Each structure stands twice: as structure tokens, then as C-alpha cells.
């Protein structure tokens, strides 16, 4: 998934910096701003108990799909219903599988493939999501083509029905939602983010949506040791303050882009609460009370960082930030000097995330930015490792 601030290309760097300082495996790592869950996946694959948090619900679904299973869900209850008989009779196995680092994986249990194929083959239908956001809908918005909009409507309605009738567990529901989110994003008629739709349906958005199966990250640890939250970061720090957190990973928003606006379509697909609000404006934004991050407000960013560091209770802290962020490198260094006994500051050249191309109202000065990776040993923690 194209995502503002995605750390996919930095995974090797993050791995190295963690291994260099021999952070004990099996301990708890807290990813406070998890986004698509790409770094949380890395932590789980490295053998850590992983806690992921983000206050956007679509992010919760994505992280849960990777962390709360060690293998694909089996859908036992669903397959034992009358509809389950139809699912079992699905004969195609064309579902693609999405793995960390795009590794090829051939599953032993294929019941999840039949479930996804069944959803894939549902007849498209009209509904409120289709009307509000899709080509041919009553509101004229073009986030998805006519056929894909109907398909998304049918699939998401079916997932909701299955959960309402207790045919699937909550974790199975979030896994199916995550698969739909990943698949829908690939045929969205946008310039990567959902702050606006394109005026005409582009070629990639004309392709038929194909559900992708998300491969949970394998681990020798039981998956129920991992936790996924959907709350404000400070609330989570209070909730886990008595836990032995070995590492807190911080990747807050760094510029003015609000995720609640730029990914509002994914949030609506995830929550499926289209009956609870009236989409606003040309782009169909969600309720005006939707959360806006203080980290994306210049007037509140420094204050937010100070509160965050003040409430952290971990042995190590790893921060990812960007040289084009709202707070300065000097401010970041001062924070680490104040709250850490020692720290290491790395600068990494990084390909810029571009949601659109150059045009008269936006001209990118460079295709690259500098990513900061800073690891620190927090004061008053019993540490054997010196940085």
C-alpha cells in the first residue's frame, strides 16, 4: 500500500540498528504509531512480543491481520454454516498472497483461499458506499470505478453480515477487512492518497479488484501475546506503564498532512459506518470531529513530543523522523539529551513519498529527503548496553 511516511525501504536499517545494540529478543516492543504495520511486522519476525497502536481503525485492521495470527485464519464456524457449504465448493484457487518483503508462500491450509474466492465472486451491488464514493453513484465522486465500487460494497456488506451472525470471530473479521483494504487500494482512482479523487477513471483503476490474502507473520511465540490498540498514544502509554517494554518505536506524523483526511476512504471501508455520518464537501470527508493529530500542527508538535518522551517507560527508544518535519533536528537532539543517558543519531538518504506529480501549485524541490533514525537508552533504566 502506498502510504505517507512508509518505512518499508528502511526495514533493513531498522533491523541493523536494533541488532547492533543487542536488544533482548522475546521482550515487548511497542510501535506507537503503527500506520500500515510494516515495522510491527518486522518486530514480530525478529522474535519480539509486539504491541502496535494507531488511532485510525484501518491501521488497527492492518496490524491485527499480521500480528494476531501466526498463520492464516481457518474460519471453522463459517465453513460449518449453510453458506459454508457453498464456500467449500469453490474450485478456483487464484488468490494472491501478500507477505512481508514480498516472499513467496504456499499455504498448507487453504480454507482462507476459498473464503476469499467466494467473496471475490460475489455479485456487485449498490449501496451507500457506492452512492457516496464511486463512479455511477448519486454523489458523482470517483474514488472507484463503477464495477469495483459495487464489488467493494458487496464484499464489505458480506463481511459485516458474517460477523453480525457470529459466523466469524472479530479477529477473522479484521483480517478480511485488511485483505479488502489492501486490494481496494490497488484499484483506487487517486494519486496515492485519498484527499481527492481523479477527474477521470485512470487505467489502473479500471482493472477488476482482486482480493489478496494477507500472510500473518510467523513467530515461535503465541500470537495472543501480541496486542493491537486503536487509541491515542498517551492513553496507550498509561495502559502499558507497568509492562516491561524493552523498546518503544516512534514514527509520528512529521508534516502538515493529516492522516484522517488523506485516508478517510480506507477508514470508512474499515469501520463501515456510512450510516452514521453524512460525507462532507467535494471529497466526501468523514465527520468534522474526526481526529486530527497535534504532531501535524506546527503550534502543537513540540509540546506533543515533550509529553510523549515524559510518559515513555521503556529501556530503549527508537525514533524515525524526517528533515522536512515540523520540528527541528536541534529540538530532537535536545530531547534525547534530556531523556536518554546516551543515544546515536543516524541520517539516511531516503526516496521522497510523492502523492502526485509536479504542477503549478506544487513543485517538489528534490526527489530525496533525509530520514533520521535515533536510538537512545532512556535514563533511570537498568541497561548493560552502552551506545
What does this structure look like?
With 387 residues, the protein is an alpha/beta fold. The protein is built from 15 helices and nine strands. It has two domains: 201 residues, Rossmann fold (3-Layer(aba) Sandwich); 176 residues, no CATH class. The protein is globular.
CATH superfamily of the largest domain: Vaccinia Virus protein VP39
List SSEs in N-to-C order: HEHEHHHEHHHHHEEHEHHHEHEE
Highest-level CATH class of the largest domain: Alpha Beta
Overall mean pLDDT = 90
Assess the beta-strand content as a share of residues.
5-15%
How many strands in all?
9
Q: In order across it, which strands form the biggest sheet?
A: 5-2-1-6-7-9-8
Q: In the CATH classification, which architecture of the largest domain applies?
A: 3-Layer(aba) Sandwich
The largest sheet is:
7 strands, mixed
Give the quaternary arrangement of the chains: single chain
Apparent shape:
globular
How large is the radius of gyration?
A: 21 Å
Q: What is the SS-derived class?
A: alpha/beta
Count of helix runs: 15
Number of domains: 2
CATH-assigned fold name of the largest domain: Rossmann fold
User: How much helix, percentage-wise, in residues?
Assistant: 25-40%
How would you concisely characterize the structure shown here?
With 387 residues, the protein is of the alpha/beta class. The chain contains 15 helices and nine strands. The longest helix is centred in the middle third of the chain and has 19 residues.
